[in-house]
């Protein structure tokens, strides 16, 4: 059985307490590795290592830092197959998805910010009467990088890359449900010439390990991606400590299909938006709104395409949907399907997962589920489910669909499908959402900001937005 280790001060070490948690594979429902149940002592050690490394790392030139990030990216690429397999076993997602999205994005994140830091411009203002002002960007210090279980390597490298590129040191806390690729990353990082303590990865539970990290006095920066409830708790706890904080939180994203859409594109795009990665992407369009003129035709075709999706062995190239991340999460998602029925909804898709291999019989599989007939304000339409469940609601007018789309606490992303370009821009402008895709879904460019409005978070990550977040600005004014 693989024993995962913490990465502190450049070394792979056991947790101080010697305690471990079971790590289950969602494919089989069996324990396949042990993950450190780290405590405050481990976080203290990591914070000390990160604090010691900070003056060394932050004084290196952008090129010296970039060279090390490029080296880590090279190592990810050389080990891509091993990482993809680990991510699939650990998280439940299809191997083809880990290979084509998660792992390549992991190295791209590092490469992007390694280039960006070497091309960063500084801003200055000059006046005719002898005033020069310029703006310094100064790295801040050890930063807490906390990531969720749905896109493990993708999201952790999305934080590590700008944090280190900007000259900070990092203490990462991956989700204990999916620790494996972060562990493999720490093994790879031992081969990179980082000053010891530049990158630390500590495994454990949110309520203990995570809590010790966010409240640590030597950790002035927190970059968190996860659920809205956890984000609210972090904000409340560390608000009085005046730490710099970015919170990327949950979503309940509308996917709006107008009568005049390109029907085939809207069907294909909506299938992906609803069910990719088992619907476990914060950007998934879990609420679909379809205009009345095509409602029946669209729903019938959407259900037909959903029924064709293969659920099962994540290593099988033809599986579109793998296993959900944990037994608890599967139960939660299935609970919402039951709640939908109590709330008056009609489940249009089949429920039974057929054809599972014997070794997957205890895995956490479910069929993608399509529901209609729910009022926009019921719980299933308001709460984040984070699984392969989509609710479809008819609408007549732009005003009506905007009111329903905006009628939730969240505001992370939205999609809309129409051939009318004026309508597309008008509706996009009026959706309360950090990202709007028109005739597409989840096109994610590293340069553009990602983040939510309303309860979907505060702050933006991506390109300069991340480099700004991981630095303090200082204005210097010279009179000469
Ligand atoms: P959680 O909020 O439960 O956990 C996220 C991370 O925070 C985990 O590493 C967790 O550890 C840790 N954590 C939990 N409690 C604390 C605490 N008190 N202090 C510090 N850290 C803590 O989210 P999930 O892992 O369940 O991820 C799913 C959520 O993430 C969904 O809501 C999804 O929408 C959101 N998400 C948002 C994205 C965005 O960009 N806006 C992108 C991807 C996901 P542990 O696992 O041990 O509890």
What would you say this structure looks like, in words?
- The protein is built from 15 helices and 23 strands.
- It has helices spanning 40-59, 62-78, 80-91, 95-118, 152-165, 180-189, 206-214, 228-238, 263-275, 295-308, 327-342, 379-382, 398-405, 421-430, 463-469; strands at residues 2-3, 6-8, 11-13, 20-25, 30-36, 124-127, 131-139, 143-146, 170-173, 199-201, 221-225, 244-248, 254-257, 287-291, 346-347, 369-372, 389-395, 410-411, 413-417, 435-438, 453-454, 457-458, 471-479.
- It folds into two domains: 2-249 and 456-478, 3-Layer(aba) Sandwich (Aldehyde Dehydrogenase, Chain A, domain 1), CATH 3.40.605; 254-445, Aldehyde Dehydrogenase, Chain A, domain 2, CATH 3.40.309.
- The radius of gyration is 23 Å and the shape is globular.
- The longest helix has 24 residues, at 95-118.
- The protein is α/β, with parallel strands linked by helices.
- The mean pLDDT is 97.
- Helices cover 39% and strands 21% of the residues.
- A seven-stranded mixed β-sheet has the order 15-16-17-14-13-19-20, sandwiched between helices. Strands 10-9-8-11-12-22 form a six-stranded mixed β-sheet, sandwiched between helices. The chain has a three-stranded mixed β-sheet with strand order 1-5-4, with helices on one face.
- The site of NADPH dihydro-nicotinamide-adenine-dinucleotide phosphate has 32 residues, from helix 7 and helix 8.
